[in-house]
Amino acid sequence: MRIFVDEIKGDKCVLRGDSHRHVAYALRSRVGDAVTLCPQDGYDYSGVIENISQDETRVKINGVMKSAGEPAVKLTVFCAIPNKSDKLDLIVQKLTELGASVIQPISTEFTQGKPQSVRLDRLERICEEASKQCGRGIIPKVCAPISFGEMSALLDGFDLTVFPYEREKALSLKRFLKGRAEKDVKSACVIIGSEGGFSESEARTLNEMGIKSVTLGNRILRTETANIAVVSALMYELDEWQTGCES
Q: What is the Cα–Cα distance from 123 to 50, expressed in whole angstroms?
């Protein structure tokens, strides 16, 4: 079982509150059961349950290793707020599984979803459960919604920016990403529009910042599909779809 904790000191860790209740009651764990603790420092700590009381669970740490489930690239996804909250639930879940580090909802000119519809507490729970399920070493950060202009001010500093735009006809995502794995990409971002896409003025703003737009082909994808498809393609091209023993 994988449990996220605030910190680990020495060779002991005491679980209290929700973590304790999850281990002791929801999972019905027993003394001697193995557990993996993740303090979100890039490492996984293996341990064994030593004691379970009414208020806490004590774990003895017996090993530590680098989190295998964390990608080498730190990926931020700027995703326009979809028109239905369950779409954002799906986006957040799947982006967590695919390796995103930061998920930033944005409002654009054609966004139909409202910022107040973004329930951070719910999305954070979805992130945590998805992180446990898929073996992540961290829980991705889900941020409060920002405007397109606020997003634009955050784009400096990324090694790579992927901007799919439905009016782009010349540069394909495949050609844009070709050879990126050899360029030591440490940070990247993906910018995905809503059901209505991006306006011409928004696309022009990004282009004038030096951000190239790419096409995803002749089919129009739903916003939730575009988020999953583009991040999947990016992670594939950055060699994140392989095990540590592969070269």
A: 33
